[in-house]
Amino acid sequence: MWDGFADHSFWIGIAVTMKRMLIGYSLSVVLGMNLGLAVSSNKFLEETVGGLLVSLQSLPSICWIPLAVLWFGLTEKAILFVVLMGSLLSHHRNRRMLRRQHQAEPRTGELVTKIDFGIFRGV
Fold it and tell me: How many CB atoms sit inside 10 A of residue 33's CB?
């Protein structure tokens, strides 16, 4: 391990890993938010694709590795695909929930806030 620090290969590995993570996560935020917006604003897409996307979200990231290797080989694209798919669907769900919250009646949000504060007031 000390040799890795001495010849800087350890730091290079950390930098490459952080670059992959940042690129994959940034792509998943952009694509997931757009996907969530598209699905939540279109009733047909919500009824047809919404359930599939929610069910795919329960898969752990490691499940995407065989598909990534088959589709992209052992390349940088395969690694980015696994990172992207590991976080894309959670951003989709979050955006979908935000969209639904804004479409609900205004008084619903007010009621939830009052209930939450009432429950946790004594804590």
Answer: 17
